[in-house]
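It would be a great kindness if you could assist me with a short task in structural biology. A protein sequence and the structure tokens that stand for its backbone fold form the material at issue. I should value your view on which stretches of the chain appear to form regular backbone elements. The record follows directly beneath this note.
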Amino acid sequence: MRDDPREFVFTRYDARRGMAWLAQAYALFSRKRLPWILLLLTYYILLKLLLSLPYVGPYAITILKPVFAVGLLAAAWTQERGGTPALRQLFQGFRANLGSLLPIGVFFVVGVTAAIFASSLVDDGKLLDLLSNAGAMNDEEVAAALADGALQAGMLFSALLTIPVLIATWWAPALVVFQNAGPGTALAVSLRAALANWRPLAIYVLGVSFYGVVLPALFTGMLVLLLQEAGLLTAKVLLVPYGIFLAATLHISDYVSYRDVFHAGETLAPLSGRTPASG
């Protein structure tokens, strides 16, 4: 196992690369749409089942996401080499590297939780109170709470603290499965590479925001303006496949961006029937 983060070489790109990751990911998805849709639907059903577990459901989902991420990475790895994504690949993280993947999920839970609790430093605990009592509040009460300037400052502070956690865990599962990194090393390397590539990452986030929020909102607003109530229903129906396509693109972009940053210019090895995560 390679434990020194300095041993992991990565490439720095300019801002334009962020949109290229999305374009390349969509191109991969468009060539194997049905296998990817089946794979993702199975994945989301499993997440829904985990979420239904009393008390531990949300934590189980978060901790196991890096494990499931390996399956999606393996599917993209296979397709890039001429194969077809398969449902069995979704569980590859459970068959290999499990001991290194679970700590990444735990790190994410602990990091985000710490960021939320840290909001008390700037809002006197208002965000924590809202999260604790949201279930007993009506929409008007929630809206009034969200309008509080101190609470907004707490949310912003927590969001800023969460950014390092997010980027540290983004490429960490790929580094574990493809480069045999330990969990601490994978998190450190992912953070270093993401900070070095903050420009394409920023453009990537803007692209995701445009396609995931702005474009659907504009589309819905246009249909509502033209068709009124029928337009809202039409938009909901049409945005279902759009949402599936976008979700698939984003999952595949995890692999595309990882390979571009950590394996730039490398020749693809032939598909031998085994992925790196197959043990």
Q: What stands out?
A: Residues 229-262 form the longest helix (34 residues). The chain has a mean pLDDT of 90. The chain is about 75% helix and 0% strand. The chain has one domain: 5-264.
